[in-house]
Design goal:
The complex is a heterodimer of chains A (97) and B (392). With 97 residues, chain A is an alpha+beta fold. Chain A has helices spanning 50-54, 80-84, and strands at 36-40, 60-62, 68-70, 90-94. In chain A, the strands form two sheets. In chain A, strands 1-4 form a two-stranded antiparallel ribbon. Chain B has two domains: 4-246, 3-Layer(aba) Sandwich (Rossmann fold); 253-387, Rossmann fold (3-Layer(aba) Sandwich). Chain B contains 13 helices and 15 strands. Chain B has helices spanning 9-19, 34-45, 59-71, 82-87, 89-97, 122-126, 140-155, 184-190, 214-246, 271-286, 303-307, 331-340, 363-378; strands at 4-8, 24-27, 52-55, 76-80, 103-108, 133-136, 163-168, 176-180, 253-256, 263-267, 290-295, 297-299, 315-320, 348-353, 386-387. The chains are: A alpha+beta (97), B alpha/beta (392).
């Protein structure tokens, strides 16, 4: 079984601890230090896709109904989507304790 | 063997870099290193060296460019001194962490202040823990030879670490000495073109220099240290290969008339030549059992090779060319004490600091150091260090 990245011995990593598989950060939860998360009022969403385009983390995914959902394992809570949303349907809410 | 040619040591180093057929040079001029890259820029301009010469606005940029060219698979060289090395500091740490075999000449010079352009070792001591292999040359021939060997050591796939070849500023860099050069075909056989293990390549993309989260950072540092320590075996291999091919033999710890010696001087760099003269006089005129150790390899520290020379030695007088402010000894002496502590035959280690900011260390200084060290050893004097010639 392949060891996880945080289980390897020092000599088992790639040369210079480089990353040789593009996009492999998707395998890890990188959004767990977020302090705010985006929330959508889907009734106001016009499915324009601006949020999808501006998200710097690729953490917005197309939903079955043509609107957009948030990948909260990778969203950092930056709020760019909420600021750029044309209809103001995205709001940022505090993460709970 | 080629005939001897009288040439300034800086230019001899440039010739070694030309013979190594480097692909990229990024450097910023700074005394006393300037002649090296100045001559290299002439060699590139005249077409004698087919390389990218990348002039930059600072040493921070010089070393950053070196990181980029080396990561792209280019044989990369730079040179600097003193404040320039200090300005590179941030990037110095990155180069070995990314396993990039950059070769750099450091024409050792005091770090300000007061402002000094003259020679001591405070620049290299300040970057001791950046993870580079550090070699010291004693004369021009060694500077030429080590500059060529540096590429072979650094680029070995068991190593892939950067190397600094340290030469004393002015004392070596600006002195005309006889050098035996090597022919291009001899060098080509010794030093094949650089084959990167991994390089930046759009067809096979990798990310170098990514975040190391707490779960892997210790492993990254452990790996770096193990590879650096492991490089000593490769360094010895390359020294042996060079000696076999060209008849000039190198060791990580050099000795001079140390047979049966009870007191040893220990030096790094060009002052070893003066120390040899002092040893000759003490041996030949006073019949005293004294000898000399010249530390060629500073990082990785050659612990076992040093210990192997300690048999029968009662007093070891270490000459430092820098101050470790508020520390326990001169920077080299502190390491020596640490390397010998708790060994069966640890000698008394006397720490002397001399030759700061270009002050000469004379033959009689070395002879006086031997006398003083033996007296200190007899009294088992607890001390931090003794500064030679300082007015008190």
């Amino acid at each position: 079984m392949t060891k996880k990245f945080n289980e390897k011995a020092w000599h088992e990593y790639e040369l210079g601890f480089m990353v040789s598989r593009p996009g492999c950060s998707a395998e890890y939860r990188t959004g767990d230090w977020r302090s705010q998360r985006p929330q959508t009022n889907k009734a106001k969403c016009i499915k324009c896709g601006v949020c999808y385009l501006v998200c710097p983390e690729g953490a917005i995914v197309l939903a079955a109904d043509g609107s957009y959902d948030f990948d909260l394992e990778h969203c950092k809570g930056c709020g760019i989507c909420a600021t750029e949303c044309w209809t103001g349907c995205i709001s940022m809410v505090e993460e709970g304790e | 063997m080629a005939k001897r040619i009288g040439i300034e040591v800086s230019l001899a180093i440039s010739e070694a870099v030309r013979l190594a057929n480097v692909d990229a040079i990024a450097a910023y001029p700074i005394t006393p290193q300037t002649h090296i890259v100045e001559h290299l820029s002439e060699l590139v301009a005249s077409g004698e060296l087919d390389a990218a010469f990348i002039p930059v606005e600072s040493e921070h940029s010089a070393m950053s460019v070196c990181a980029g060219t080396s990561a792209a698979g280019a044989r990369t060289y730079t040179a600097t001194s003193s404040q320039g090395l200090a300005l590179m500091n941030e990037i110095l740490y990155i180069i070995p962490a990314l396993r990039l075999p950059v070769v750099m000449t450091i024409a050792n010079r005091a770090v300000s202040g007061p402002i000094s352009i003259w020679n001591d070792h405070s620049d290299i001591m300040g970057v001791r823990d950046t993870g580079w292999i550090a070699l010291f040359a004693e004369n021009g021939q060694e500077a030429f030879d080590l500059s060529l060997m540096a590429f072979k050591i650094a680029e070995d796939h068991r190593v892939l670490l950067p190397i600094s070849v340290n030469i004393d500023g002015f004392t070596l860099s600006h002195v005309i000495e006889p050098h035996e050069f090597l022919d291009q075909d001899e060098v080509d056989k010794f030093l094949p073109p650089y084959t990167p293990a991994v390089q930046l390549n759009p067809d096979a993309p990798v990310s170098m220099g990514t975040v190391g989260i707490p779960e892997i950072f210790s492993e990254a540092k452990k790996c770096q240290d193990e590879v650096l320590k492991g490089s000593e075996a490769v360094i010895k291999e390359v020294f042996a290969d060079f000696g076999e091919r060209f008849g000039r033999h190198y060791k990580v710890v050099e000795t001079y008339r140390s047979e049966g010696a009870e007191t040893l001087l220990l030096t790094m760099g060009s002052v070893g030549e003066t120390a040899m003269e002092a040893i000759d006089r003490l041996r030949d005129e006073e019949n005293r059992p004294v000898g000399l150790i010249r530390l060629r390899l500073w990082r990785p520290f050659p612990v076992e090779a040093l210990r192997a020379e300690m048999s029968g030695v009662k007093t070891l007088a270490v000459i430092d060319r820098a101050v470790s402010f508020g520390g326990t000894a001169g920077p080299v002496a502190g390491e020596i004490r640490s390397a010998l502590y708790s060994t069966d035959q640890a000698p008394y280690v006397a720490s002397f600091i001399a030759g700061l900011g270009g002050r000469d260390i004379t033959i009689s200084d070395f002879m006086a150091v031997v006398d003083q060290a033996e007296k200190m050893a007899a009294a088992n004097e607890i001390h931090q260090y003794k500064m030679i010639g300082v007015r008190e």
